[in-house]
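The protein record now logged underneath.
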Amino acid sequence: MLQTLHIKNYALIQELTLNPSKGLNIITGETGAGKSIMLGAIGLLLGNRADSKILFEQDEKCIIEGEFLIDHYKLKSVFDEEELDYAPVCTIRREISPQSKSRAFINDTPVTLDVLKKLGERLMDVHSQHETLLLGDSDFQTDTLDVVSGSKHILLEYTGLFKNFKKLNRRLDELNQQILNEKKELDYHNFLLNELQVATLKVGEQEALEEELQLLENAEEIKSKLSIVSAALENDDVSILSLTQTALKSIDQISNFSANLTTLKDRLNSVLIDLKDIKDEAFAEFESVEVNNERTEEVRERLSLIFSLLQKHSVHKVEDLLKIQQNLEEKVQKVGNLDEELVSVKFEAQKVQNQLLVAGRNLSEKRKSIIESLKNQLEALLKDLGMPNAVFQIKMESCEPSSAGIDKITFLFSANKGIPAQELKNAASGGEFSRLMLCFKYILANKTNLPVIVFDEIDTGISGEIAIKVGKMLKQMANGHQIISISHLPQIAALGDAHYFVYKKDLKDRSVSSIRQLNDAERLHQLAVMIGGDNPSQTVVNSAKELMNMA
């Protein structure tokens, strides 16, 4: 229950504090005094958005704070899910700065508006005149039927399956589009890949071929020059080798005479060894080099193919072509993988759809099971509220699976005898709507563990005996819930466990709204004013006393 509501610097409210009773709290006051402004402030505690335009003083921040006693409402799981400190008394605070910056706190921990809404909808149900219009909304009607039928656990199962089903269908759409796009390019990719695969390129091949071609194209000159080298190194008459050997033989005969001569001998011997190696390698090169026009043409053609592929793919090395070949292989393979994934996702989507339809049918059966009972209960309540000929019906039609199930729920209503029941938006006046909404709230209150229910002029369009019955219905609801009701009817105001009066007072430069709880004498006077206007007669005061005694 709401223990304390503190409002500072909001709209016409400079500062006020409200400590409502745990039962039925009635708020009255003149039109424009600021009764509904309080609902706006409460809305901020529930996560509604706000801006600096609602500030009473534009250079000061607005603070709305509510203290809720929550130890009997099994809300600890909500705190655990959001990693918030739990306490039997929960403090919610909203702050709006002059710069329109908004901050929210739960037990002094900063939270987002989404978290505030999540907790707020478990703490308070605020019925406004705008919400009465929602009675004709299909989603509201479906939600109402689910609460009354106790379908929450089935709905949660269905909703989880529906989200998964939608996710799988989105993936199917993505896969089909990807496959379509990939297959448009598949033939071209296959052509490019086949071209590279047939080429059987190898790392370092280009450099080796270029070197080989250089040798082949210059084979005759190379052999000629190597022949000269061989002749110079080893000639039958005079050669570098024979002269070196002669020199070595001569210096060997004198090398013992000094260390320098020994060194010269060793060096000359080393030169002779190198010359022999050079001779052998030059001969081997001579033998390996051949004039081969056929091979030359083969190498030229191979290099031409490589250069053509390099140019076609705008790269410079065979290694780059091999990377392109690998990428093409992956792209071609990917189309095959996408086909496999498509089959797998289709199978999973069908399985989830089957589960979804089973859960949807279970949800439908649960809803159908309560329709007759809800109809009878509502018609009985409406009869008690002065609508003896009211007819209420619930039409269920099968539809494609949606987030709300496989049913289209439509509430039909007629307030007058002989008039067929129609959709709510076409079938009720303002006062009838208010009474119908009150009946729904009355039924829903018995199905929910909600601490606080707030009504903003639920008594619109009624008077007399019906007003008394509406008041008694609110009084009964207050046995299990804290009720806060803004009212303009004395028959309802008389039934409150606590009566608060909202009024305007004029400061030096502006008007402000304030509120105070009335004592018995003040309450009697206020009821008399509500019945007969200012300066009520004794007869009117007696009527007010009678209302209080009846309460």
